[in-house]
Amino acid sequence: MSKNEEKQNELQSEFDNIQNNSHFNPSNNLVKTEDMPDFGELEIYNYNNDLTEVGQEAIEIMDHLVDLYLGDAPKITQHPYILRKKMEDARVYARSLFLERMSEKLLIHQFKQVDQGDNSARMHEVINQTMREMREINTDGRKSRTEIESLYKQMRDDFGLNNLADSTQTNEVKPEPEAGSKVMDAKDLNDVIDKYIQQKK
Q: How many CB atoms lie within 10 A of CB 62?
């Protein structure tokens, strides 16, 4: 007789015994609450809070970044295109931060499963895969954020703000402009912004 057949006969015997025993009390075979492992209180994680937090953090970072590179030209920072661009970049920034936070949360959860006794080879394989994906998410996030910062650096150069900052000297005699040079007024600045936007479309 195979092991499966033996097990089936054993289960059938126990089932017949239960049916034939009118005094059988099922509660005697149930696990008692005090014998169950303590899994702690169940908590429903609020992912919307994370989305809100990283969204606010991303907007704050972008405000500082725009102020750093374009802050000496308030008219540029308040241009509708720059304001919209800043919010789009903030969303990219927020997604990057959210993915990093969630991958870290997932990895910690998997480590806790190992601590609770799930020490199988499959579990370790899952953890290794999560760690690889986490490294890729971090790398992609840093790349995206670096590209955003480089864009605003390039904007500053395209708008001529570096030259403007170099030529601005307080409490000093300003040198006479060279032949052919031109001081940029508000209208010229608007033209530069419009030209930059057209090039990026």
A: 22
Number of structural domains (the chain) is: 1
Is 58 a member of any domain? yes
76-90, 151-165, 183-197, range with the lowest pLDDT: 183-197
DSSP 35: G
CA nearest 111: which of 130, 96, 95?
A: 130
Which structural domain range is residue 77 located in?
47-156
Is 6 a domain residue? no
Under 8 Å between Cβ of 155 and 196: yes
Determine, yes or no, domain membership for 195.
no
Instruction: Decide: 192 and 159 in contact? Cβ < 8 Å.
Output: yes
Q: How confident is the model at residue 198 (pLDDT cuts 50, 70, 90)?
A: low
Q: Of the segments 4-18, 75-89, 174-188, which one has the largest average pLDDT value? A: 75-89
Rounded-to-integer distance, Cα 42 and Cα 23, Å: 37
Q: What is the CA radius of gyration of the chain?
A: 33
d(CA 185, CA 176): 17
Nearest to 29 by CA among 14, 9, 12: 14
